[in-house]
């Protein structure tokens, strides 16, 4: 697919069908995410109260040894950058937009245009919204670790953290999976 072509819901369903999950848990989430997209024409809209598509950016440095994480203000956890599609069906564009908005990075590029990871997670109820699911499509990006960062209002902090330490630390289980995928690529010498 050309870089400038917008991704449609049908395109996303095709990519989800071709995606190879890393393990049984991610496979189950891929099935759930695919069924959600197939069942809801409005899956990209935040107004869909049961859940909606989000897109994330797993940002690593050129060596693949560090990942840029945000300490999320509302959730109080270290997570990858990302956010709501807000009606945009091009999840690549959403992931790139969110990465730029949440980090201030300009010189960020796709490590690969393929889907890197999938995750379905529950968002707790808050006074202004009910409990719902985020159906997250994730892409890998590369950025310069020396570039200046700007913390967005959605974060407490941004930090480049060693990928090798993310598999054990106090981080979200899906971030640990992202770290394991990156470590595996590094061991195989196949990091894009």
Characterise this structure.
The protein has 192 residues and is an alpha+beta fold. It has one domain: Alpha-Beta Complex (Nucleoside Triphosphate Pyrophosphohydrolase). It is 31% helix and 27% strand. Strands 1, 2, 3, 4, 5, 6, 7 and 8 form an eight-stranded mixed beta sheet that branches. A hairpin with a 5-residue loop joins strand 2 (66-72) and strand 3 (78-79). The longest helix is centred in the first third of the chain and has 16 residues, at 24-39. The model has no long low-confidence stretch (mean pLDDT 90).
Shape: globular
Q: Which architecture does the CATH hierarchy give at level 2? A: Alpha-Beta Complex
CATH superfamily: Nucleoside Triphosphate Pyrophosphohydrolase
Mean pLDDT, as a whole number?
Answer: 90
Radius of gyration: 16 Å
Can you tell me the CATH class?
A: Alpha Beta
Total helix count?
A: 5
Strand portion, in percent? 25-35%
Runs in which pLDDT lies below 50 for 5 or more consecutive residues are none
**DSSP E strands, number:** 8
The ordered H/E elements are HHEEEEHEEEEHH
- What structural class do the secondary elements suggest? alpha+beta
In whole angstroms, the N-to-C terminal distance is 18 Å
Kindly give the count of domains. Answer: 1
Share of residues in helices: 25-40%
Largest sheet: 8 strands, mixed
CATH fold type? Nucleoside Triphosphate Pyrophosphohydrolase
